[in-house]
Amino acid sequence: MIEVSQRARDIGDRVEDFVRSKIAPYEHDPRRDHHGAPTRELVREIRALAREAGLMTPHIMEDGSHLTQVETAYVLIKSGLSPLGPLALNTNAPDEGNMYLLGHVGSDHLKEKFLSRLVSGDEQSAFFMTEPADWGGAGSDPSMMKTTCKLDGNHWVVNGRKRFITGADGAGVGIVMARAEGVDEGGGACMFLVDLPDPAIRIEGAPNTIDNSMPGGHADVTIENLRVPADQMLGAAGEGFRYAQVRLSPARLSHCMRWLGAAIRCQEIASEYACRRQAFGKPLIDHEGVGFMLAQNQIDLKQAELMIYWCASVLDTGDLGTTESSMAKVAVSEALMRVADNCVQVMGGTGVTDQTIVEQVFRELRAFRIYDGPTEVHKWSLAKKIKKAHREAAASA
């Protein structure tokens, strides 16, 4: 069994108490935008509570160092016990992944100018990578990227379109990814840190989606002649695709952590309902059709937890862990979807209402099976590696 340090347990246990006692009561707060997401006003209010409790961005220490991935898992699982927990504690997507990337790749200049604003929780951020399908742009295959950047004096000029940019509406910091012109023959990508809002980054709208836990929704964006100072490039020119993996591998796992917490809470709610609700002369849980669903949930939750901690331990070795994070993303998202579906079914009509978080978590987990790489893309990637390993073994035989 992978050991979790005492410092992580201390932080995580405080996080759990805070989320259950202070944040869960806000789950029925009516301050929501037209997408159903929490308003910025509500986010500011619950973040003020986190600051008061000394729990803002609990996975990053005062000296700027991060908890290990195993330690982070313990804390982020606890933060996810309410859909509002990650927002309150600043462990939410895309900010958590953006902070991780900046911390690992950013220069001292960029950390001072941008990272400190995110770690404090004073501002939120957006990661501009995905592009519209009708434009032939990048989705699960980032090599299809059509947004371009070109050096002009001491600035880079960026032009293109982006889609499903979570939190772009209301963000103060953006990480923009574009294919470089004139950098190398392969047209490697670059990443840039930008202050938002910027008139060159125009939000065209945001479609209503099945999930609504993230303020600002998932915006469609046009970038027209965005001028970025050269010293605001993240890392080196042409290395953007590699940096994307630096961000995405841990970020996939962080999603698994947060949503495991939410699924655990759903299991608690459904179990309480099944033990209290009577039907045909006995509690629902005494009917095998119901009891077995909750038992299977316990199995799926434990398997998801073990997968998360195993993958976190691999990442802590210093390996980017793309294989491990792909396996975790598939296994955990599919398992938690089953858990949420069972919870809805156990609760019957109540399960499809907004009287509890079960209905929302069911919707959010359905979206989780798609973002940060659909299940099928990860399986395709894993199959390619199986084929490669087979060829190499055959060649050396």
TrEMBL record:
The keyword Oxidoreductase applies. Pfam families: Acyl-CoA_dh_1, Acyl-CoA_dh_M, Acyl-CoA_dh_N. It comes from the Bacteria. InterPro entries: Acyl-CoA_dehydrogenase (IPR050741), Acyl-CoA_Oxase/DH_mid-dom (IPR006091), Acyl-CoA_Oxase/DH_mid-dom_sf (IPR046373), AcylCo_DH-like_C (IPR036250), AcylCo_DH/oxidase_C (IPR009075), AcylCoA_DH/ox_N (IPR013786), AcylCoA_DH/ox_N_sf (IPR037069), AcylCoA_DH/oxidase_NM_dom_sf (IPR009100). Residues 8-122 form the Acyl-CoA dehydrogenase/oxidase N-terminal domain. This is Acyl-CoA dehydrogenase. CDD domains: ACAD. Residues 238-385 form the Acyl-CoA dehydrogenase/oxidase C-terminal domain. Belongs to the acyl-CoA dehydrogenase family. Its cofactor is FAD. Coiled coil: none annotated.
